[in-house]
Specification:
Layout lengths: L17 E5 L5 H13 L15 E5 L10 H4 L1 E5 L6 E5 H7 L1 H12 L6 H5 L2 E3 L14
Parallel strand pairs: 1-2, 2-5
Antiparallel strand pairs: 3-4
Helix pairs in contact: 1-4, 3-4
């Protein structure tokens, strides 16, 4: 029986690219799945689930994202403060008004695998509420 080996890319050969994603007028779930795939590195030929070979993603115009159905009224985000009776909730519509970047970040975070690479992957996501971002030098060719 022939034994197959998994080839590991050295850290020096990991080519991380920068992707600019404009979220204006796009559906939240559709665009976030694409962003998660870029951050994980599923589009690369050297992809392996146990390696971190993904790219950087800069998402702009997060305040102009669209959702379908009644999600603006029905969807709730929960967190617990750690104290007794500390369960807090906020609706999607209210969160989009106050902090639209958090909606995108939480959506992508929910689509990443729950493992040790999750924190390093989410750090490569840069989200901005409007079209102004600080990474313009990364996209000049």
């Amino acid at each position: 029986m022939k034994r197959t080996e998994t080839k590991q890319l050295p850290i020096s050969e990991k080519d991380r690219k920068w992707h600019l994603v404009d979220l204006s007028g796009k559906i939240l779930g559709r665009v976030v799945t694409g962003i998660a795939g870029l951050i994980i590195g599923k589009t690369k030929t050297a992809y392996a689930p146990h390696t971190d070979c993904g790219d950087y993603v800069v998402a702009i115009n997060a305040a102009k994202i669209k959702v379908t159905g009644q999600k603006l009224q029905d969807k709730k985000y929960y967190h617990h403060t750690g104290y007794p009776t500390g369960l807090r909730q906020i609706g999607l519509e209210e969160l989009l008004e106050s902090n639209p970047t958090r909606v995108i970040r939480l959506s992508v975070l929910g689509m990443l695998p729950k493992n040790k690479l999750r924190n390093s992957r989410i750090k490569r996501l840069k989200v901005f509420a409007d079209g102004n971002h600080t990474y313009s030098e990364k996209f000049k060719s």
